[in-house]
């Protein structure tokens, strides 16, 4: 372990520890806790990792430093801002919520307060910054439903913007890669804990049937609106296994790590699915998740 000039902890570690599928080789990880630390960390080639819930990282890792938001940048100040909130109309604008804050824990706190707007994102195992960057969501709601201000860090400095400054849309914030969402202010509507819980339960019900094991989430986008999971199922691929990675028997569009899988195992299954379905499809199957480094799976793009 070393410490940077501005006090950031820097450690070489397997990235497998920081992805939900649990695969990925080593990189130099910068556990950044302050805006000054972020400014220092982005002065050399870098990547930013959130909860790693949309990533498959190659077994040889990545050469760039990998930034992980930690400490205060992974905590939420939910105190309503008196200058921005409007209690008469039930509008709450929070203090700063760190981009490294785990989304599931944040949603539990919002539910307890009876604050609405983000409950449609229930069940997404992301950090706030990663979920904002992708505008993660479900058919019940998405991250941009509850955003007031975004704080963005790049090598050029720190800027504050609002959703109106972005051309955001479906699963897309419009933020370029490596524009770090360091903190956000949330815009919420006063409801009741019971009502928020009821909407969360309803949204979560749609997840029944998804595997509970280590996974990077859905593998492929639905080609032309047809369910990729159904196509994989019909091709008889559910349960196929390479090494310790398996196409989930519960849902064909999920690859799971049985314990000890490598990125090569996961990529092998992705290639198997693509190759088997290709003859029947007009368009190639498109990956849902990112592969780091991108060259490791250029054939899957
Ligand atoms: C079981 C499961 C269920 C899922 N269900 C859904 C779902 O219903 N809907 C949905 O939309 N997604 C879903 N996902 C996918 C995933 O959770 C989302 O894509 C999420 O937005 C990824 O966030 P993350 O913090 O894990 O980002 P990571 O996977 O760590 O990174 C993904 C991308 O975001 C960038 N990034 C991460 N943090 C930041 C930051 N602070 N600032 C800027 N860029 C950043 C990374 O550089 C990378 O490009 C699911 C995944 C799993 C494993």
From TrEMBL:
The active site is at residues 171, 218, 288. Keywords: Cell cycle, Cell division, Cell shape, Cell wall biogenesis/degradation, Cytoplasm, FAD, Flavoprotein, NADP, Oxidoreductase, Peptidoglycan synthesis. GO terms for molecular function: FAD binding; UDP-N-acetylmuramate dehydrogenase activity. It is an enzyme of class 1 (oxidoreductase). Pathway: Cell wall biogenesis; peptidoglycan biosynthesis. Its cofactor is FAD. Gene3D superfamilies: 3.30.465.10, UDP-N-acetylenolpyruvoylglucosamine reductase, C-terminal domain, Uridine Diphospho-n-acetylenolpyruvylglucosamine Reductase, domain 2. It is found in: Cytoplasm. It catalyses: UDP-N-acetyl-alpha-D-muramate + NADP(+) = UDP-N-acetyl-3-O-(1-carboxyvinyl)-alpha-D-glucosamine + NADPH + H(+). Its EC number is 1.3.1.98. GO terms for cellular component: cytosol. GO terms for biological process: cell division; cell wall organization; peptidoglycan biosynthetic process; regulation of cell shape. The keyword Cytoplasm applies. HAMAP family: MurB. NCBIfam families: PRK14651.1 (NF011245). Cell wall formation. Belongs to the MurB family. This is UDP-N-acetylenolpyruvoylglucosamine reductase. The gene is murB.
């Amino acid at each position: 372990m070393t410490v940077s000039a501005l006090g950031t902890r820097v450690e070489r570690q397997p990235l497998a520890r920081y992805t939900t599928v649990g695969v990925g080789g080593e990189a130099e990880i910068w556990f950044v806790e302050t805006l000054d630390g972020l400014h220092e960390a982005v002065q050399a080639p870098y990547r930013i990792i959130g909860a790693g819930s949309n990533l498959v990282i190659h077994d040889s890792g990545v050469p760039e430093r990998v930034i992980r938001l930690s400490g205060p940048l992974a905590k939420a100040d939910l105190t309503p801002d008196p200058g921005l909130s409007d209690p008469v109309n039930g509008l709450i604008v929070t203090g700063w919520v760190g981009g490294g804050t785990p989304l599931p824990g944040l949603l539990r706190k919002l539910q307890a307060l009876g604050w609405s707007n983000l409950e449609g994102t229930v069940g997404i195992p992301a950090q706030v910054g990663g979920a904002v960057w992708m505008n993660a969501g479900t058919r019940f709601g998405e991250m941009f439903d509850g955003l007031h201000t975004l704080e963005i860090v790049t090598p050029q400095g720190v800027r504050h913007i609002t959703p109106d400054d972005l051309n955001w849309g479906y699963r897309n914030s419009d933020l370029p890669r490596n524009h770090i969402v360091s903190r956000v202010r949330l815009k919420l509507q006063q409801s009741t804990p019971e009502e928020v819980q009821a909407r969360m339960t309803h949204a979560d019900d749609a997840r029944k049937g998804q595997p509970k094991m280590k996974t990077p989430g859905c593998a492929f986008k639905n080609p032309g609106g047809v369910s990729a999971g159904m196509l994989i199922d019909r091709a008889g691929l559910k349960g196929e296994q390479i090494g310790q990675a398996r196409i989930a028997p519960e849902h064909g569009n999920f690859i799971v790590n049985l314990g000890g899988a490598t990125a090569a195992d996961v990529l092998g299954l992705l290639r198997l699915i693509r190759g088997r379905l290709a003859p029947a499809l007009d368009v190639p199957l498109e990956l849902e998740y990112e592969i780091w480094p991108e060259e490791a799976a250029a054939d899957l793009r």
